[in-house]
Amino acid sequence: MSENMLEKIIVISGKPGLFRMLSQTRTGVIATSLIDGKKTVTNPREQINVLTEIQIYGIKGEVSLEEVFHKIFVYEKGESTRIIPKAKKDELEAYFFEVFQDYDEDRVYASDIKKIIQWYNLLLSEGILKFEAEVSAENSAKELPKESV
User: Model pTM?
Assistant: First the structure.
C-alpha cells in the first residue's frame, strides 16, 4: 500500500460513509463523499478523523486501520468481504477474529467491526485500497512449500 493512500480519506461525525478531503478552510474542510460524490463543507462542531490516524485495539497494542485493511485484503484475496456489515453481532465478531486474531474483544465492538467492513468494501470498490503485489507475493510464498513437498 502506498504510504499516503488513506491520508486524504476522512470520517466526519454525524455523516455516513467516507470522504475524500479536497481542501481545508479556516473552520473545517471541503470534502467529497465516496458514496455519492456530493461535496460537503464541515463546520467546527463536526469531528473529523483521518483514516491514517485511526487505531484498532489489539491485545499486544494498537494496530493501524491500514494494517487491518491489509489483513482483510489478504484474507479475502483482494475481494470484497464475504460477510455483510449488517450480519449478526456474533457473526461479525467471528469473522473479525479470523482476520485479526489479536484484536481486543473487550474494546472493539460489533459496531466498530461493522464500520471497518463497510469502509473496507467502499475503499476497495473505489479502487483506493491497493495491495495487489503484496497479496500475490504472499500467496506465492505460501504455495512454494506445498509444491516442494
Answer: 0.83
